[in-house]
Amino acid sequence: MDWTIQGVIELGCWIGHFPHRWPTGHDAEDCIDAHIACNIRHLVWELGRSVLTYHSDLPHATCKGFLDEALIDGAQRRAVEAMYRERCQLRVALQYGREKGCTVYGRLSMNRHYSPGRPHRGCFTQHNPQLLEVLRDGRLDVTRMTFGAPEYRRERVEILVEAAQIGCEGLCLDFCRQPPAARYHPSLVNPWRAERGLDPRELTLSGQREEFLDWCAYRAGAVTEFLVELKNELDPVRERYDREIPLQVRIPNDGLEANLICGFAVEDWCRRGLIDEIALSELRWIEQYQDWDDEPYLALGREHGIPVFAGNNCLPRQAGGWSGECNPRGVNPWVMARRALDAHEDGAAGVCVYQSDLGVQWPGQQEALTEFAHPEDLRAYVQDHTVRERYPVTEENRDFGIDNHSPLPGQLTSVDQL
Fold first, then answer.
1. What are the tens digits of pLDDT across the range 44-72?
2. How far apart are CA 139 and CA 184, in angstroms?
């Protein structure tokens, strides 16, 4: 069985987590070299979120590094912006990665647009408030846009197709940043209500389970339609350049029903041949779904011939999101390595390591990550009692490797809010 370690890289964090590492003029190359030193040669490179992190020719794109510097606080953040402005780091990564024998995917965060006024918010989002998602109670969800609108689906498709044309060898659609992908926008609510005679905003999982899940399947269809449109645009690119360009989706592993509630009809995606790979992340966030199990996804992969990559993470949980600082007490390289070994023994195709840009710089994680590529070495590392003694498991670090965006207990989202 093939076994692949995928490093999910955000170059801004390569610098941001280590203040001494300000732009050097060869940031992408340095980052790739550090991954190679840890035996990671499959790189999942950032394309951006609402603001893109490569130099795009799309007319509606907002690109990192080209904002008014007056909006950027602090010398370090301005230095990071300069890094993105002075070179297209994606193109550098693609060229240098090929020279070094690496595979480079492009990764787009699928629905993370931040709040108005923040420099992370792109112009397309800012100029199209009618496309913002809507909460159950009618308030705007200003951080997400609706896949029920063809205009938003088109904006995401164009970015991904451009990345493929630039040379990305595969594409990662990161739905872990930020679920849910579908809520209660009128483009979804009105047709369903007209067809079914029910207002979906009055349905709950506990009260009208069958009808609520029927509604969830309906609105998930908008995300599936996006995948159909993307495939239709990608297939000619694949044919023209004679490249496979695998399409990977990164999703939480809290179960296929929880996925559907969030807009991810994973079984349908597999059955219709819309995706080529699945990457998992243990994102703990829905109150009613507290079981994290890779087996349902591995079973789907076996049925449809789709590689499934288990989740891992170089960042400890950050109390609901990224806080700008790492908590060293929450890091445990042995726990991270044990997760990877469990994934191999369960039959995963490999491990998708989020924010590996941090791990390849952190001394203890460097040591562990280097062992991931060879399962026998990984097993020896996990079973080495001296390693276990060096990294004692504590209440604070026993869950290391789960998604760092997982909120703390007591702060979980209820399905009734989705």
1. 999 999 999 999 999 999 999 998 777 77
2. 10
SS3 content of the chain, % helix, strand, coil (to 5): 45, 15, 40
List the single range of 23-32, 85-94, 304-313 with lowest mean pLDDT.
23-32
Partners of residue 277 on adjacent β-strands: 248
Query: What is the pairing mode between strands 170-174 and 140-145?
Result: unpaired
**Buried (b) or exposed (e) across 29-64, using 16+ Cβ within 10 A?**
bebbebbbebebbbbbbbbbbbbbbbbbeeebbbbb
> Residue 173: what are its φ and ψ, rounded to 5°?
-95, 105
Which pLDDT tens digit goes with each residue over 152-199?
999 999 999 999 999 999 999 999 999 999 999 999 999 999 999 999
Give the strand pairing for 42-48 and 140-145: unpaired
Largest CA-CA distance found in the chain, in angstroms, rounded: 65
Nearest to 248 by CA among 271, 220, 227, 232: 227
Radius of gyration of the chain (CA): 21
| pTM of the complete model | 0.96
Q: Centre a 10 Å sphere on the Cβ of residue 315 and count the other Cβ atoms it contains.
A: 24
Beta strands 140-145 and 103-109: pairing type?
unpaired
Task: Specify whether the CB–CB gap between 184 and 201 falls below 8 A.
Answer: yes
Q: Which of 293, 315, 294 is nearest to 402 (CA)?
A: 315
**Is-contact 159 52, C-beta < 8 A?**
yes
CATH number belonging to domain 4-417: 3.20.20.80
76 — pLDDT class (breaks 50, 70, 90): confident
Cα distance between residue 389 and residue 393, in whole Å: 9
Q: Is the peptide bond before 59 cis (omega within 30 degrees of 0)?
A: no
Classify burial at 345, counting beta carbons within 10 Å of its beta carbon; exposed 0-12, middle 13-18, buried 19 or more: exposed
